């Protein structure tokens, strides 16, 4: 059971699951930071700077986590999946190369100026640096999603002697699922960040922070979520339709449809059983799956039995999909209701703040669940129809992979704990900090001296 | 001009350049990590030392991603082969990089009682990363074998890289610090420099002794006259730096940039020496750059992008270093 293939898959899944948590926050958080900074530059209201300075520290921390876990990924191709580059290197190579060249350096270099340069450059250059980091993170998403989408729905290439050669770069990059996946992921990043900001701000408010900063941040985050959550449902639906067209077996697994049928029900719950090829304990709404997927009551949905031996593991895809959609629904309700209250100038009460705190990392869970749907849903292929996962794996001794896998798990568990613990410490510290320092209120706005706790050390980015 | 003969050479050049830039840039920040003094009363020194690398380390590590990325893209066969043999050292390297990278951010933000723990992890992570890199370098030179003799050589190489990075780190600190910490850095640089010289000499003697290929290359006439220049100049740089370090600090902090520049020269010469020993092999005695190279169309696609983008990267990298020039203490706000 636990052979090199399975362990390599689990290790890759663990690495990329851990990694994706941080870019998911950072892609959108950086644009939100830019918004705070521009607001400050425009209004000269120091509240925006105070918010910026709290969240830029969170950004720095998340960025470091993203960088180090991302470096791990770049080695994994060689250490665990040599067959991948040997077969599709002509496509994957340039896409990854452009990601490094256009995104990684941009974000990493300007990050230094963004975090530590506020007293050394003009406010404009600082805002510009923030913009460059935001562009860098989004470029990175663009390239890596182009590659991932290509693996799902390959296009623009031909096979010669078992190796893929590009015939059209345009078709490779803008392959059929790419626009949908990119939009879906960017909005997911926005939603994750919105609930992340809302959750931590709610924690501060509930712990007795009376300053303006967390209130303004909470309001911004709620409005952002209120716009993005329904938009995500819409884009997600489009993405699903696209998957139905190109990877019907994945949709069949998502919906738990075994036999091809017209007017398939939408299953709210079931336990799919791959042995007997049926579902147990089904609870469903008749005809709804067909209606959603084909926009016709009696539309035909292809069943898993049409793809026997060539479809993904059903249970994992089926449940992950329900987790993702479930969280999405909760997000829409919470975002709209709380935004409405905020819009009516009502302060959120205790249980409402608690709800937001509980949902702080809900975006993470939804994003992971969504990625499991799409990536497990691609199995048994690594590149759909081109390269099977089992054919790409290394011949490394199982013991080596087991050792590395277990150590990664321990390191990641420790880091995740430290990350969340540190966020909590930072939030708690910020509660006792004064809203403004006299120095901060200087007219130029960019001579913001650190900081509320005067003995803070040099390594700290601005503000608390 | 841009064809399947020249493109692999261009790409090994680009990759080599990335490795060299990585060794210099991440070398100094790893070195600073290794040198971190752990005494309870030295927290202030640690703060300044870490502040001196704060704005740069993210971008420095990106050069490693570029180097590994270029190998993956341009020489996938070599990438697979090398990392198959280096599975465990790579894994140790990665754990080291992860631990030190996050410790850097955690130490500044964590509760005070955890700070010292993160400092330890930062130091250990830096050391682990460096040792793993040295070991990998040794494995590369040995053509990936795990006999007792080659492991002994790899350990020597790990030691060599560790003192070399510390040397560079100390020289960086001479540039970025003042007063007592600067004096301390000068002493560190002196000792690391001497150890590094021993390391470089040991590796240079053992390498051609073990690799007959390398031996015949280095000592073939008439090239020998030319190639002996490299060790000679390298040795002179060591001696010159030693003499300079013993006279530092000077009034008005003159020559505080000297040691760093000299160590960069030493790094560059050692790198050229290594490259000369093995080119055109990307895996010594096994794969040449032409055998390992990707499809020529693929290389072209990246080449044109790289020609446009790399100068831009260098421009904004220089911009970032200019923003943060001068002493690291000025990163403090009081």
Fold blueprint:
The complex is a heterodimer of chains A (464) and B (334).
Chain A: H1 4-43, H2 46-80, H3 82-116, H4 123-152, E1 157-160, E2 163-166, H5 169-173, H6 178-206, H7 212-246, H8 248-255, E3 261-262, E4 266-273, E5 278-285, H9 288-294, E6 300-301, H10 314-343, H11 350-358, H12 362-376, E7 381-383, E8 387-388, H13 389-392, H14 398-431
Antiparallel strand pairs in A: 1-2, 3-6, 4-5, 7-8
Helix pairs in contact in A: 1-2, 1-4, 1-6, 1-14, 2-3, 2-7, 2-14, 3-4, 4-6, 6-7, 6-11, 6-12, 6-14, 7-8, 7-10, 8-10, 10-12
Chain B: H1 7-35, H2 43-53, H3 57-74, H4 76-85, H5 87-109, H6 112-141, H7 148-176, H8 179-210, H9 212-218, H10 223-227, H11 229-247, H12 258-278, E1 281-283, E2 287-288, H13 289-292, H14 296-323
Antiparallel strand pairs in B: 1-2
InterPro entries (chain B): Cyt-d_oxidase_su2
Membrane topology (chain B): Multi-pass membrane protein
Transmembrane segments (chain B): 6-25, 81-99, 120-144, 150-174, 186-206, 218-240, 260-282, 302-324
Sequence stretches where pLDDT stays below 50 over 5 or more residues of chain A: 438-464
Structural class of chain A: mainly alpha
Q: How many DSSP H or I helices of chain B?
A: 14
**Distance separating the two termini of chain B:** 58 Å
- Note the total helix count of chain A: 14
The largest pleated sheet of chain B is described as: 2 strands, antiparallel
Largest β-sheet summary of chain A = 2 strands, antiparallel
Strand content of chain A: 5-15%
Q: Roughly how many Å is the radius of gyration of chain A?
A: 24 Å
- Approximate helicity band of chain B: over 70%
Overall morphology of chain B: globular
Question: Helices and strands of chain B, in N-to-C order?
Answer: HHHHHHHHHHHHEEHH
Main β-sheet, spatial strand arrangement of chain B: 1-2
- DSSP strand count of chain A: 8
Largest interface: A-B, 76 and 71 residues
Unreliable sequence segments of chain B: 330-334
Overall pLDDT metric of chain B: 84
Strand content of chain B: under 5%
Number of domains of chain B: 1
Transmembrane segments (chain B): 6-25, 81-99, 120-144, 150-174, 186-206, 218-240, 260-282, 302-324
Subcellular location (chain B): Cell membrane
Membrane topology (chain B): Multi-pass membrane protein
Family (chain B): Belongs to the cytochrome ubiquinol oxidase subunit 2 family.
């Amino acid at each position: 059971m636990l052979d090199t293939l399975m362990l390599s898959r689990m290790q890759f899944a663990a690495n990329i699951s851990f990694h994706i948590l941080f870019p998911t926050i950072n892609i959108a958080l950086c644009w939100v930071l830019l918004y705070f900074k521009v607001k400050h530059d425009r209004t000269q209201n120091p509240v925006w700077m105070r918010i910026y300075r709290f969240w830029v520290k969170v950004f720095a921390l998340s960025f470091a986590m993203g960088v180090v876990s991302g470096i791990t990924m770049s080695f994994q191709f060689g250490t665990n999946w040599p067959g991948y580059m040997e077969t599709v290197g002509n496509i994957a190579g340039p896409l990854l190369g452009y990601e490094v060249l256009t995104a990684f350096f941009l974000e990493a270099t300007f990050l230094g100026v963004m975090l530590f340069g506020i007293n050394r450059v003009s406010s404009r250059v600082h805002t510009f640096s923030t913009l460059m980091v935001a562009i860098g993170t989004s470029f990175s998403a663009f390239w890596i999603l182009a590659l991932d989408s290509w693996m799902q729905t390959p296009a623009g290439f031909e096979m010669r002697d078992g190796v893929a050669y590009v015939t059209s770069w345009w078709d490779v990059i803008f392959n059929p699922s790419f626009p949908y996946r990119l939009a879906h992921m960017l909005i997911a990043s926005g939603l994750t960040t919105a609930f992340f900001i809302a959750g931590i701000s709610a924690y501060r408010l509930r712990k007795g922070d009376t300053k303006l900063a967390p209130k303004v941040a909470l309001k911004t985050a709620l409005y952002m979520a209120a716009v993005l959550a329904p938009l995500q449902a819409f884009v997600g639906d489009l993405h699903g339709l696209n998957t139905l067209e190109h990877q019907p077996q994945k949709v069949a697994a998502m919906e738990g449809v075994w036999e091809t049928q017209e007017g398939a029900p939408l299953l709210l719950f079931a336990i799919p059983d791959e042995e007997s090829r049926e579902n147990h304990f089904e609870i469903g709404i008749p005809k709804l799956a067909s209606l959603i997927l084909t926009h016709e009551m009696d539309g035909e949905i292809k069943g898993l039995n049409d793809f026997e031996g060539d479809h993904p593991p059903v249970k994992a895809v089926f449940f992950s999909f329900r987790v993702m959609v479930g969280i999405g629904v909760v997000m829409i309700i919470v975002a709209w209701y709380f935004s409405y209250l905020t819009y009516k100038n009502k302060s959120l009460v205790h249980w409402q703040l608690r709800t937001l705190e509980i949902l702080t990392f809900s975006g993470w869970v939804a994003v992971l669940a969504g990625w499991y749907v799409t990536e497990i849903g691609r199995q048994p292929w690594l590149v759909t129809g081109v390269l099977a996962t089992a054919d790409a794996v290394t011949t490394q001794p199982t013991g080596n992979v087991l050792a590395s896998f277990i150590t990664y798990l321990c390191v990641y568990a420790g880091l995740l704990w430290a990350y969340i613990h540190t966020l909590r410490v930072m939030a708690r510290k910020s509660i006792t900090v004064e809203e403004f320092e006299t120095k901060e209120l200087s007219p130029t706005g960019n001579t913001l001296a650190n900081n509320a706790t005067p003995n803070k050390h040099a390594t700290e980015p601005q503000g608390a | 001009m841009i064809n399947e003969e020249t493109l692999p050479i261009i790409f090994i050049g680009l990759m080599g350049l990335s490795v060299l830039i990585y060794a210099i840039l991440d070398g100094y920040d790893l070195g600073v990590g290794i040198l971190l003094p752990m005494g309870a009363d030295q927290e202030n020194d640690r703060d300044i030392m870490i502040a001196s690398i704060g704005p740069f380390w993210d971008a420095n590590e990106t050069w490693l991603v570029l180097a590994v990325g270029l190998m993956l893209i341009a020489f996938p066969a070599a990438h697979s082969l090398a990392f198959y043999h280096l599975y465990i050292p790579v894994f140790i390297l990665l754990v080291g990089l992860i631990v030190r990278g996050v410790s850097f951010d955690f130490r500044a933000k964590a509760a005070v009682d955890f700070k010292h723990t993160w400092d330890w992890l930062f130091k250990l992570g830096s050391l682990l990363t460096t040792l793993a890199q040295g070991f990998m370098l040794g494995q590369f030179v040995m053509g990936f074998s795990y006999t007792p003799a080659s492991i002994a050589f790899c350990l020597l190489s790990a030691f060599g890289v560790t003192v070399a990075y510390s040397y560079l780190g100390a020289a960086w600190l001479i540039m970025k610090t003042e007063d007592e910490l600067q004096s301390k850095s000068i002493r560190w640089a002196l000792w690391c420099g001497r150890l590094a010289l021993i390391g470089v000499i040991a590796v240079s003697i053992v390498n051609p002794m073990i690799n007959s290929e390398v031996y015949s290359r280095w000592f073939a006439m008439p090239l020998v006259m030319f190639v002996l220049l490299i060790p000679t100049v390298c040795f002179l740089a060591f001696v010159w730096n030693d003499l300079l370090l013993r006279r530092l600090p000077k009034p008005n902090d003159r020559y505080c940039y000297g040691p760093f520049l000299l160590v960069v020269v030493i790094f560059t010469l050692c790198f050229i020496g290594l490259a000369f020993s093995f080119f055109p092999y990307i895996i010594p005695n096994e794969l040449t750059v032409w055998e390992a190279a990707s499809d020529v169309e693929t290389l072209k696609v990246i080449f044109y992008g790289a020609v446009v983008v790399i100068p831009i990267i260098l421009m904004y990298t220089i911009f970032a270093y200019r923003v943060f020039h001068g002493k690291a203490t000025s990163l403090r706000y009081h």
